[in-house]
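thought: fold this chain, then report.
action: predict
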Amino acid sequence: MSDVGAQSILFDVFGRLMQAQRTDGRWQLFLVGAEGKKRPVPDVSVPPHLSAEELLTFLDDLYHEFASPSHPSVRSC
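observation:
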């Protein structure tokens, strides 16, 4: 299987580094640790029709309870 056309985006999700990777038309989320190691986020299913721009809003809506004065929103890295 080829990753040609794969898309990867890093987000700061209220202070947590998260990578969204789109392969074969489907998004998968990963938490990225301080050493750069990734682990999947298995309990979140991202609708495959979301664009990269819509994904930021999706993550903001999903994780808004983690907002704080120092991390008020999700942002692209």
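thought: worth noting. The first strand starts at residue 7 and ends at 13.
final: tokens above.
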